[in-house]
Structures are given as C-alpha cells and as structure tokens.
C-alpha cells in the first residue's frame, strides 16, 4: 500500500510504502493481516526502512491506533531496520492511524481493532485496587457477623432466670446454720469472706 506525496522541498517523489502480509492462524481460525515494514522512498530510491511491531488485526477488520511512531514516548511501534541506512535520522509519527489492506468494501474501513490493550497499567492498577477493597469489605462483614453472634451468646448468659437459679444454688452452698446461745447465725463456707453473725 503506497501513499504518494510527490515532490516536497528537496524530496523528489516522496512515497510512504506499507508492506502488508496475511497469515492464517489455526487458534483463531481466521486470516490476520499485519504491517510488516514501512519504507520511505524519495529521490527514486528507498532511503529509510522501519520494521513494524504489534500492528496486526483480523483480515476482515481494520487496525486503528492514536499514535504509530518511531519515538519511544509513543511506544515505538516502528523500529529502524538497520543502523547503516538513514532510518536513524528520521522520526516518523502517524496520528489517528488507521489501515486496512484487505477485504475493503465500498471504500470504507471495516470495524477497527484498536491498539489500546485491555490490560493497560491503569486498568491493572484499578483491578488490583478493586480486589483490595473487596477483601477489606469481606473482612469487615465477617467481623460484623462474628460480633452479632457474640451478642446473642451473652444475651443468653445475662438473662435474669439464669442468675436467679445460680443465686439459689450458691446460697445453699455458702451458708451453714450455727447454734449459739439462742441466736441463729450462719457461717460462710467460702474462706474468702470470713464469718458473719446475725
């Protein structure tokens, strides 16, 4: 696929040439196309060649990307093929780039496969933060349920009937009648309290 610009300044017959290839992948059971190489042709010869990376899409789709560039700040999808030619002297950047080499219908692009990854660093960070928040929420709910069960346990222990029954049994164990000169007195068996006379 060639884009012909003609003469631009000192560049005679400037052409940007895209070399596209198709391949069949058994895993996806369909043909895919990929941009294999980009060439800058001027002065009637190839002056710079860039190898393209990660620029591919199903053959029935088009490929779209906000920036296809040889610059690192745009992820450098175009890599100079050799240090011997003039590729190192060129900085190539396409903005709002879209390409489709095969199965073009009515002169319009097909549905575009975008270069943006579904698992970009921002998306991965958001997923990790969501997982942490879910774990904190699950821990908080677990603690609330646990506290509620403790409240029920102590409600049973703190009922008046429970302590009244204990009080009756304990009073029989703690006091013992004593006979002393006509007055009735009781002695506590528990040595911690000493003796009480009534």
Automatic annotation (TrEMBL):
Gene3D superfamilies to which the protein is assigned, alphabetical: 2.40.160.110
InterPro entries, alphabetized: Ac45_acc_su, VAS1/VOA1_TM, VAS1_LD
Keyword annotations of the record: Membrane, Transmembrane, Transmembrane helix
Major location (coarse): membrane
Domain (V-type proton ATPase subunit S1/VOA1 transmembrane): residue spans on this chain: 117-154
One of the protein's GO biological processes: regulation of cellular pH
Location of the protein in the cell: Membrane
Transmembrane segments annotated in the record for this chain: 118-141
Pfam families attached to this UniProt entry: Ac45-VOA1_TM (PF20520), VAS1_LD (PF05827)
Molecular function (Gene Ontology), one example: ATPase activator activity
Membrane topology recorded in Swiss-Prot or TrEMBL: Single-pass membrane protein
GO cellular component: bounding membrane of organelle; cytoplasmic vesicle membrane; endomembrane system; proton-transporting V-type ATPase complex
Domain V-type proton ATPase subunit S1 luminal: 1-102
PANTHER family: ATPASE, H+ TRANSPORTING, LYSOSOMAL ACCESSORY PROTEIN 1-LIKE, VACUOLAR ATP SYNTHASE SUBUNIT S1
Record-stated family: Belongs to the vacuolar ATPase subunit S1 family.
Entry protein name: VAS1L protein
